[in-house]
Amino acid sequence: MNYYVVEIAVNFEDLKVWQEARDIAKEVYFFIRDIRDYGYNTQIQRTSVSVIICFNHYFLLKSFIFIYTCFYIYFILFIMKIYTKTGDKGMTSLIGGKRVPKNSVRLESYGTVDELNSYLGLIRSFVKNRQVENELVEIQSRLFDVGGSLAADPENEQVKIKLGVNDGDIQLLERAIDRMDAEVPPMKYFVLPGGNQEVSFCHVARTVCRRAERRILDLAGEAEVDESVLKYINRLSDYLFVLSRKMAHDAGIEEHKWVPGD
Prior knowledge:
Layout: H1 2-10, H2 18-38, H3 42-55, H4 57-62, H5 64-79, E1 91-93, E2 99-101, H6 105-124, H7 130-151, H8 167-181, H9 197-220, H10 227-250
Antiparallel strand pairs: 1-2
Helix pairs in contact: 1-3, 2-5, 3-5, 6-7, 6-9, 8-10, 9-10
């Protein structure tokens, strides 16, 4: 988000008239309003203003138009209330401004990713291993990127925000899976979800991750979806399964195998 706002701010030195400054400020406003529905908090929005000011202090001294525009944005971010009432009738805005129903396939996809991210935060509250904790923080940030990618209007070519994941993010998951898998007994049977509380939360998160994958596939049947997003979510469910086994092993909890019925 910060890169988007900074890109706009840098262009302020080229503005010659008040109308252009006001239009740019409104563009920032609508962008922030749209992502507010997605869940970015006020602190991140305030950070954007700080980034603008830090990167453009030279223009602040020389451009009254820029000062006016920053004041306009400051008013929006610091005085506007958190709630907008724009979603009271079951509609919300994608990044780009398009209004869609809150139960649309696209909303279901990134809403489920948001649900998954919340479970990862819950799991992280139990983790004592610093390496795993850092991995979870990284994954949670990447899930925000995934959500931002899914929340962007693909039909709006003027949307400047480009979020998502790449091969390096997927490889990070794969390395973590390989490392943890080498630290637990070989898999010889299907294991039942459960153990202690944190292990059980891992299994819940894994199933939510699989649901997120299905919802994203539903969306992919209607619109273009970045292939890397699907790969990342698929690999993440494997990560969560291996993490559940790793946490059970470290806690000395016996895994219960699946026993088929007669």
